[in-house]
């Protein structure tokens, strides 16, 4: 473990790139988790929540059947 920290202290650019990659990947995972949580918790407090539908896009007859 000590040799790894010595390696990181000698190679500043390598350390910066690795830490930046770790930060970006963790941020992406947190944002995906938050988005998933919000998607599944929309109006879950409502008494008839299973009857509510939230369209994600406008209906275009040439692409999908519109009901």
Describe the structure.
Helices cover 57% and strands 0% of the residues. The chain is mainly alpha-helical and 67 residues long. The protein is rod-shaped, with a radius of gyration of 23 Å.
Concise account of the structure shown:
The chain is mainly alpha-helical and 67 residues long. The protein has two helices and no strands. The radius of gyration is 23 Å and the shape is rod-shaped.
Topology overview:
Blueprint: H1 2-10, H2 12-40
Strand content: under 5%
Percent helix, as a range, is: 55-70%
Distance between the termini: 63 Å
Cα Rg: 23 Å
Give the helix tally.
Answer: 2
Q: Please tell me what the overall shape is.
A: rod-shaped
> What is the H-and-E element order?
HH
Model regions low in confidence, pLDDT < 50 over at least 5 residues:
none
Structural class: mainly alpha
Mean pLDDT: 80
Oligomer: single chain
Largest sheet properties: none
Number of strands: 0
What are its keywords?
67 residues; mainly alpha; 2 helices; rod-shaped
């Amino acid at each position: 473990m000590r040799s790894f920290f010595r390696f990181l202290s000698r190679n500043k650019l390598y350390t910066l790139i690795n830490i930046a990659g770790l930060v970006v990947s963790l941020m992406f995972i947190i944002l995906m988790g938050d988005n998933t949580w919000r998607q599944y918790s929309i109006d879950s407090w409502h008494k008839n929540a299973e009857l509510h539908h939230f369209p994600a896009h406008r209906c275009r007859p040439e692409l999908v059947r519109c009901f």
